[in-house]
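re: the backbone from monday

yeah here it is again, tokenized this time
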């Protein structure tokens, strides 16, 4: 059986980042990727996708964004090329098209790994496969009329790829809100079932809100010090867009332009979509979060004595006159439904006891209670930026140090 000191599972930006540190330390390792390096950026995003964090925040170990638009937002293709370019800078030992089917603890220490290319044994394992594995589809989706095309947000590519007609988008996290915007800009009639996602302004008082929050140290706060602690990992991301140089996503404005908004979708009954009357509450809550962030920025500007332009606060441009609780799909001409209600994890192949009752890995900064087993690239692994380009480099450096110490312990034993 082939033996490696470290096996990294996943060849995206997280797996490549820890590989960079292992390579720099001269630690024997291999990166196993079930498809090709960074393929999720090519295959798992829609055509008009852009990052929602500015390019200057994109940094991997030994590699930062060096393009001509640091305050802009890379497109899907640009991100894919950027990550692929990173791999070219240090030639990581990646084996593409190798899928892991099982990881178990080996007798006497280390791990046995079953793959489509044969078995391996290693001393330490880094799981860098992200936290979004299986698209979530509600059970009542099976009650949709058979002539309606239904797909998850991970499968959406463009308005042109959908059949003619109106589209129902379910969910207003980052993907749902941006897909609704994409369809709206393409002239499609959009019906949007809102959720409880918060929103954030793109710009405030002369700067991107991300820049203000970065300077405030907001993105460096460990999850244990966040309100709600580890429960923060379950929070929905704020919706905003990097499209067109970056702007707010204001669902109220969309409604004033003809988009149809509803509360939370809860069922399909007799060809009709059923909604809870939560629309106005959801819109108000999202606006309150955005305004609360502005309050924090105002306070920071005052404390630091920064000269910044003043800006009038947001005023709602639309309010629902009533709360619709049903939508006749045929009468509305709905030809497609896009489910944007999240993902669930799938670690069935990782047969090591490091999971809680909900199937989430238990760890501290990616270090588990099982010696030699680590996670990297998960949302809120340590801070807000852990699942984004903003803090992967820092998380990878931390794990690189821990893996090196683990290697020393193994050698001493």
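seq for it, each position gets an aa:
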């Amino acid at each position: 059986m082939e033996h490696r000191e470290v096996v990294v599972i996943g060849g995206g930006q997280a797996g490549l980042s820890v590989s960079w540190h292992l390579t720099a330390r001269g630690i024997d390792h291999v990166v196993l990727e079930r498809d090709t390096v960074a393929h999720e950026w090519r295959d798992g995003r829609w055509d008009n996708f852009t990052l929602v964090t500015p390019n200057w925040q994109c940094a991997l170990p030994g590699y930062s964004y060096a393009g001509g638009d640091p305050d802009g937002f890379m497109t899907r293709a640009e991100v894919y090329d950027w990550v692929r370019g990173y791999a070219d800078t240090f030639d990581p030992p990646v084996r593409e098209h190798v899928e892991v089917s099982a990881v178990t603890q080996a007798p006497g220490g280390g791990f046995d790994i079953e793959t489509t290319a044969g078995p391996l044994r290693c001393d330490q394992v880094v799981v860098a496969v992200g936290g979004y594995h299986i698209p979530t589809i509600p059970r009542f989706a099976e009650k949709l009329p058979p002539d309606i095309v239904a797909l998850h947000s991970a499968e959406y590519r463009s308005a042109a790829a959908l059949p003619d007609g109106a589209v129902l988008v379910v969910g207003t996290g980052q993907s749902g809100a941006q897909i609704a915007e994409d369809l709206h800009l393409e002239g499609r009639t959009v019906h949007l079932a809102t959720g409880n996602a918060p929103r954030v302004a793109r710009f405030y008082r002369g700067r991107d809100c991300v820049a203000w929050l970065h300077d405030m140290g907001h993105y460096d706060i460990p999850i244990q010090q966040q309100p709600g602690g580890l429960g923060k990992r379950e929070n929905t991301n704020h919706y905003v867009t990097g499209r067109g140089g970056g702007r707010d996503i204001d669902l109220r404005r969309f409604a004033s332009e003809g988009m149809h908004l509803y509360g939370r979708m809860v069922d399909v009954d007799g060809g009709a979509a059923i909604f809870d009357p939560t629309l106005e509450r959801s819109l108000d809550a999202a606006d309150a979060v955005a305004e609360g962030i502005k309050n924090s920025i105002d306070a920071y500007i005052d404390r630091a004595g920064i000269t910044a332009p003043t800006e009038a606060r947001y005023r709602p441009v639309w309010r629902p006159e009533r709360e619709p609780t049903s939508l006749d799909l045929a009468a509305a001409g709905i030809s497609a439904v896009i489910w944007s209600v999240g993902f669930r994890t799938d670690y069935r192949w990782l047969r090591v006891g490091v999971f809680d009752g909900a199937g989430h890995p238990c760890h501290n900064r990616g270090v588990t209670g099982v010696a030699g087993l680590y996670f990297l690239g998960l949302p809120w692994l340590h801070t807000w930026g852990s699942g984004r380009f903003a803090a992967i480099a820092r998380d990878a450096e931390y794990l690189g140090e821990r893996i090196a110490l683990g290697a020393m312990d193994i050698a001493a034993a």
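The first strand starts at residue 2 and ends at 9. The chain has two domains: 2-133+345-412, 136-339.
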